[in-house]
Amino acid sequence: MTATGTALRLGLRANIAQFTLLVAVNALVGGLLGTERTVLPLLGEQEFDLSAYTAALTYILAFGATKAAVNFVAGTLSDRFGRKPVLIAGWLFALPVPLMLIWAPSWGWVIAANVLLGVNQGLAWSTTVIMKIDLVGPHRRGLAMGLNEAAGYLAVATTAMATGALATEFGLRPAPFLLGAAYIAVGLGLSLFFVQETRGHARHEATLDGAVDSGHSGSLSTWRIAGLVSWREPALSSASQVGMVNNLNDGLAWGLFPLLFAAAGLSLPQIGVLVALYPAIWGLGQVLTGPLSDHIGRKPLIVSGMLTQAVALGLVATADTFPAWAAATVLLGAGTAMVYPTLLATIGDVAHPSWRARAVGVYRLWRDGGFAAGAVFAGVIADLTSIRGATWAVAALTAASGLLAARRMYETRPGG
């Protein structure tokens, strides 16, 4: 029973108001991330004179390592204290970020701001994922994750394009980051005054018939869950390795693609369009791929999505014109859309409601560790060879990840 005496109900229709509100909140979380996508790589090169790629990617390393660790903590905190307090804490950590980026006198300030941004994204994005899974129940997880991730990454895309336009008109600072400050104010207000706690829905689902997963139901320690998600359980650990490689790709695209495009002589508005195309297709595509995974299964989309990304990265490495790069980034976004909500749905399929939030946290630890791994891997190879050489290396790794999932993963869709 809720505080008002109404019985808890699972399902998208039964919880449409809260679900829609959480979609909006996650769009704001994604929008804050999007304020950096176009501007920061160019800021590092033009205002802080960072010539080495490994040095330029330190902010992504800081962001990814922090977000990965906080994802792990977010799941445990959500189980212990509830979802809403963790969401609010995420917004509070974001408050200094735009001001630090606007006033940064050195690259160290940018790195510090991205540590706080990593905390924000780890707490806030993780919690909106968990809350939506709580609300919709077992049968519409793919749709729920598709809508959640679509909102976040469409906001990344539109904000990346908007900040490119703002930077063209007003300069790299402060205008693009003022947009992020507005996102934080609205997101914190909605989370404080309108978002409702959903932990009770997960507890309710755990009492229903059929809420028993593949042999791992009941109370488990956090370290036991970490072992299952990291290496012991084939579907969960496959999702973790695919997620990590997927975000390694994103770290490459975020940190190095704008520099590749700029070196080819593209204008700032053109770079903004290319930077936005990838997350835009990624975001829009998830509206289709999330529910599609509820019908055809998770594994086919995960495997084909990684192989599609590998092909797209190869095209990025060979292209040298705006139309060719646009086609490649559209294909990269489509491949990512196949994978992203489907991996989260897989975690929701296998993990029991009593430890699902912690399983999501461990999965997101590995997935967002890909940002940090990508910053190091792509940066070192780019310094040794070139950005194109790093892109080829990541393409090969992406193909290997998809083939490994094809061999090791089993289908997890309920009734599949």
From TrEMBL:
Its main location: membrane. InterPro entries: MFS, MFS_dom, MFS_trans_sf, MFS_Transporters, Sugar_transporter_CS. It comes from the Bacteria. It is found in: Cell membrane. It is a multi-pass membrane protein. Keywords: Cell membrane, Membrane, Transmembrane, Transmembrane helix, Transport. The keyword 4Fe-4S does not apply. Residues 19-413 form the Major facilitator superfamily (MFS) profile domain. Pfam families: MFS_1. The chain crosses the membrane at residues 12-33, 53-74, 86-103, 109-130, 150-168, 174-195, 248-265, 325-344, 365-384, 390-406. PROSITE patterns: MFS, SUGAR_TRANSPORT_1. This is MFS transporter.
